Amino acid sequence: MRYKTLGKSEVSVSALTIGTWAMGGLGYGSVERKDCIAAVHAMLDAGVNHIDTAWVYGLGESDKVVGEAIKGRRDKVLITTKCGFRNPADGVEPNFPDCSPAWMTTCFEESLKNLGTDYVDYFLIHVPDANVPFEETAECVKRWQKEGKVRFLGVSNFGIDDMERMGEYIDITAVQSGYSMVSRGEEDNMIWAKEHDIGVMTHSSLASGLLTGAIRELPKLAEDDIRNLYQYPHFREPRFSQVMELLKTLDKVAAERNVPVAQVALNWNIQKDFVTTSLCGVRNVKEALENCKCTEWELTSEEMAMIDKAIDETVGK
Question: Which domain holds residue 287?
């Protein structure tokens, strides 16, 4: 396993992070808890030392899975959690921002209970909320830090302007941004963060499974499927066909390396110098072990250049 220092927190974090959104169950089809726990154990045993979760992932369900998985291992693992999204009552609309102290506190305290811990290593404000002053949200999370419930503070899904604004109230040590070969819209935010000694975590690193190579035909998604609910562009035309064209290059590299396509995609992500750690969601041991093996080798500069060229020519930025 490779490790990097996560910004100004000066904590060593594994290049891969266990992502748990799918473990929450909502919008991801059926999930077997025992398989998820076994997957977490497999990644921890392979050297991964960081888990990312949030109460909104299954309305506390992913926290419960993580809590069960880390029993007896809490001192061996870094935990990041997030609050600031609220789920709609009907369950068929996207989550919406709510960074009010009352809602944040409700979610955070329940997360700690479900995780079976009295603190988390990183707490990230999940999303900017235009309806709540940044200062109010900041006062809330700084209080948790003062109480010892949080070691380091950060943000998620924040652009540069919002990071600068929130940075007036809290010491931002980490930012989490969506980033993959097919979604590079937040690249400038991540580069800015690295320049300011802020650790960068990337979510959606495998584009919701599209960059594993397992999906080759446009799927018919259920109404409540996350990829449909949030209208992911790469699961719609013409973007989907563009990604399929990109996969031809990834297939070539994977075949020459004799590795799964997912390992190529993850290597490309974690080899970017502005990326500290990349989240990858897993639901079984097979996926966990295959993903961890990506850290046993690296893409050459020539392979990186070839992939970057293919990205520019197919999906762009």
Answer: 3-214+272-296
pLDDT for position 29:
54
The C-alpha atoms of residue 22 and residue 105 are separated, in whole angstroms, by 23
Residues 6+ apart with CB under 8 A from 98: 84, 85, 86, 104, 129, 132
Measure the CA–CA gap between 121 and 148, rounded to whole angstroms: 10
Query: Measuring CA to CA, which residue among 213, 303, 203, 299 is closest to residue 260?
Result: 213
Residue type, 253: V
CA distances from 157 to 28, 75, 92, 129, 247 (A): 21, 28, 22, 11, 27
CA 75 to chain CA mean position, Å: 22
pLDDT digits (tens, 9 = 90+) for 9-21: 999 999 999 999 8
Residue 317 has pLDDT above 80, yes or no: no
Give me the CATH number covering residue 112: 3.20.20.100
Are 90 and 96 within 8 A, CB to CB?
no
Average pLDDT, the chain: 93
How confident is the model over 133-162, as a mean pLDDT? 98
pTM: 0.93
